[in-house]
């Protein structure tokens, strides 16, 4: 088979790497890809939102399967464009990707189908939102309705913070049109857990749990980011939590989307909060998480092509999804200053230290080749240093050891990824 992956970050590198392990695949392309992805796939200079160019490339190169990694093209309808051209593609159609594309839609869906989530109200008028906030309990959460690179969530400790947040999202348009509508949500306490799943429209198969670290600085301080590190599995995702979510969250979501005439095929990412009242859904994503994919895919035993095809064909019930009995930790090496201003173009050295090292992976998030053919930094999140181990503590020690193997100017990371496991 010839496979095309759409995207160019750490998640897409993990997907390309996993596809490269399939005996069914002879050639992988990635559009636009990055310098790390170039090791396992041929990078194609087409942007993720150039649907017609991507579809033409898939036809011209007789691509057997296209896998869409990113949220923007999914929400924009790339799957519909490919299907209209008779091309085989993995991911939800536009009317199903709205599960991530609109927080207001997903909250309304959960309310309608009694899927546990935080209490909320939706606003299209900044004046109405502010009126509501006058009598709200604090802290409170403001969410931009649309896509905001995983950063459109503001946790407001005071009324003043919340009023400023409404201005930021709705008037200053910090995230553009994503803030035309906002969701104001009760603040939930508890541990966050990420659970990825494969879905074929009817059947859902749960992948191993993971836990993200969103804030830029140690101790969960600083600004929200796309994710500074991850570990899998989460020791807080117990059998009891799993049983509850299987009964009230996972299949309920798949059935709700089907009932709404929006059958979902692809990956649903459940962001869960383990509250004192039980698990509740924080958010849905309509694709692999980043860096969740980097810790879950190295632990997956199955040939991923089999799973992709089962999701497309509606035969996921025939797949026995299996994961290694081990653990995996990813520490993101970022450019100092991320998620605000940061410099790019610094040479990355030491990557050869990961060659032929079993259980160690270097997933590129923001890298490119410069005019001299050297690999340089090209983003806020640069690399995902990932390692497995028999236990989470061992995997964590291995990952942090491996962060010393690779270097670039302005290298920055959190030093407490997975620290919560010490409490277990």
Automatic annotation (TrEMBL):
Its cofactor is Mn(2+); Mg(2+). PROSITE patterns: ATP_GRASP, GARS. Keywords: ATP-binding, Ligase, Nucleotide-binding, Purine biosynthesis. It catalyses: 5-phospho-beta-D-ribosylamine + glycine + ATP = N(1)-(5-phospho-beta-D-ribosyl)glycinamide + ADP + phosphate + H(+). InterPro entries: ATP-grasp, ATP_grasp_subdomain_1, PreATP-grasp_dom_sf, PRibGlycinamid_synth_ATP-grasp, PRibGlycinamide_synth, PRibGlycinamide_synth_C-dom, PRibGlycinamide_synth_C_sf, PRibGlycinamide_synth_CS. SUPFAM superfamilies: Glutathione synthetase ATP-binding domain-like, PreATP-grasp domain, Rudiment single hybrid motif. Residues 107-316 form the ATP-grasp domain. It comes from the Bacteria. GO terms for molecular function: phosphoribosylamine-glycine ligase activity. Belongs to the GARS family. This is Phosphoribosylamine--glycine ligase.
